[in-house]
């Protein structure tokens, strides 16, 4: 068996992929072993003796199922938490959310303008 290390490396370069993605036709070993340049490898690719293997599929089915369970509230107990309460959901963010809700409520009722006006009068 002839070593096709060089040919595989050149093919990987030509096909713009890794060496593990290169398939060399085992029936055409003599033909492939003669190729020692990019030009020759390109010809072999065109003839179909050298092929780029398709990338393997990485299924996300398990990840989706786990995420669905998380949404339902599973796997979220004390034992699963990595970090303090403050790290998980900072009190500052809670405060900001609360303020935004209150401001929206005031704005919808029309009292926000009056509040701001009175505040500026008293503050100055």
UniProtKB/TrEMBL annotation:
- Fetch the Pfam families from UniProt: Ribosomal_L19e (PF01280), Ribosomal_L19e_C (PF25476)
Q: Known Gene3D superfamilies for this protein?
A: 1.10.1200.240, 1.10.1650.10
SUPFAM superfamilies linked:
Ribosomal protein L19 (L19e)
Q: Which domain of life is it from?
A: Eukaryota
Single GO term (MF): RNA binding
Q: Which UniProt keywords apply?
A: Ribonucleoprotein, Ribosomal protein
Q: Does the keyword Signal apply?
A: no
Which segments constitute the Large ribosomal subunit protein eL19 domain?
Answer: 3-120
Name the SMART domains for this protein.
Ribosomal_L19e
Task: Cite a single GO BP annotation.
Answer: translation
According to the record, the signal peptide region is none
Q: Which GO terms describe its cellular component?
A: cytosolic large ribosomal subunit
UniProt lists the family membership as follows:
Belongs to the eukaryotic ribosomal protein eL19 family.
- The identity of this protein, by name, is Ribosomal protein L19
Traced from the root, the source organism's taxonomic lineage reads:
Eukaryota, Viridiplantae, Streptophyta, Embryophyta, Tracheophyta
């Amino acid at each position: 068996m002839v070593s096709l290390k060089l040919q595989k490396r050149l093919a990987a370069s030509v096909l713009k992929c890794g060496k593990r993605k290169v398939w060399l036709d085992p029936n055409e070993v003599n033909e492939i072993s003669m190729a020692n340049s990019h030009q020759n490898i390109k010809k072999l690719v065109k003839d179909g003796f050298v092929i780029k293997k398709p990338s393997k599929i990485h299924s996300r089915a398990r990840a989706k199922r786990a995420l669905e369970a998380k949404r339902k509230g599973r796997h979220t107990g004390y034992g699963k938490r990595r970090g303090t309460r403050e790290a998980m959901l900072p009190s500052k963010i809670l405060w900001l959310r609360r303020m935004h809700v209150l401001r929206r409520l005031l704005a919808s009722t029309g009292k926000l303008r009056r509040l701001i006006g009175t505040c500026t009068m008293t503050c100055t």
